[in-house]
Write a structure and sequence with these properties.
Blueprint (H helix, E strand, L loop, with lengths): L10 H14 L12 H8 L3 H13 L3 E4 L3 E4 L4 H26 L3 H13 L3
Antiparallel strand pairs: 1-2
Helix pairs in contact: 1-3, 2-3
Length: about 120
């Protein structure tokens, strides 16, 4: 897991995003445990509190459950719910792009061209 001190995104959010991506993509499976809070904090050389905050965020989102004495376990993922969560993330990103375009004075037609160009680029 790579963390950036200069990205402007809090460390706990970067950790949560990395696990969220792994869970939603199926890389982490139902019943699998996240690394221990202390172990991850030590590995990443960060505070236990920061790690705990990331795990609690994932729990609030329903992606993991705290298991007494065992740690945080990945929950069963409802495919429809996952799609909705991913759709919400896409919508938020598009809204951010629209706001940035408005601030830059980019007209709607030019923004559509940019979007179409980005869609046509193969990764």
């Amino acid at each position: 897991m790579k963390l950036s001190q200069t990205s402007g995104v809090p460390i706990y959010q970067q950790i949560a995003e990395a696990f969220r991506t792994d869970i939603l993509s199926g890389k982490m499976k139902q019943g699998e445990y996240l690394p221990s809070i202390r172990g991850l904090a030590k590995e990443l050389k960060i505070s236990v509190i920061t790690t705990m905050k990331a795990y609690e965020l994932l729990e609030e989102e329903g992606l993991v459950t705290a298991m007494q004495g065992k740690g945080f376990q990945v929950n069963t993922q409802d495919n429809e719910m996952l799609r909705e969560q991913q759709m919400r993330r896409v919508e938020n990103s598009i809204n951010d792009a629209i706001k940035a375009a408005r601030n830059a004075g980019i007209e709607d037609e030019e923004l559509r061209e940019i979007f179409d160009t980005m869609l046509s680029i193969k990764e």
